[in-house]
Amino acid sequence: MRDGSIPGVHGRVRPLILLGDPVLHAPCEEVTDFGPELARLVEDLFATMYAAQGVGLAANQIGVPLRVFVYDCPDDEDVRHLGHVVNPRLVETDGVVVRGPEGCLSLPGLEAGTERHDHAVVEGRTVTGEPVTVHGTGFFARCLQHECDHLEGRVYADRLTGWRRRRLDRQVRRASWNGRDRGAGGAAEAGG
Predict the structure, then answer these.
(1) Global pTM?
(2) Which of the residues 30, 37, 130, 147 is marked catalytic?
């Protein structure tokens, strides 16, 4: 991305990978090439995220198993956070644990109360390989933790237990995008 350009304007909208696809359930690979292909991937991630009206998107959600995510997400004070992280590591989570509604572009139309820390710190690289540290609070902290989970092969459904998990499993089985009944355990079998 060039400085001052609008992220995603040169990107192409790619199809979203939905719950059940194996690429969502395997840890992603480290990025080793910080060249033009990575810059195109980041642009495509932004374009796809905006087209789907999301606040964050990980590369495996468009079928690319690399450790990259983008975000355009407000925090609880309505401050906008815009950027990307390559090879992110969630280095700190603290503060209170809050159960709040969480959705995912790979589980369209669904959400569930999911516990996340109220503060998160992610370290990684920019698309040009420069070190970057991103601090998030509130909803933005939730976003950072959610996207880091994706790159480890997890989705928010994996964090649910009890009746919340059973309810989401039922919703996944009935979802119009599912196209098939996964039987008991739906999202559990899918790995999130």
Answers:
(1) 0.89
(2) 147
pLDDT in tens, 85-127: 999 999 999 999 999 999 999 999 999 999 999 999 999 999 9
State the CB neighbour count (10 A cutoff) for residue 24.
24
- Alpha carbon dihedral 191, 106, 144, 161, in 10-degree steps, equals -40
Calpha distance 140→152 (Å, rounded):
19
Output DSSP code: residue 127.
T
Q: Let me know: does 74 contact 81? Beta carbons within 8 Å.
A: yes
Total Cβ atoms within 10 A of residue 94? 11
Q: Is 147 a catalytic residue?
A: yes
Return the DSSP state at 26: S
CA dist., res. 149 & res. 43, Å (int): 21
| 128 touches 34 (CB < 8 A) | yes
- pLDDT tens digit string along 8-36? 888 999 999 999 999 999 999 999 999 99
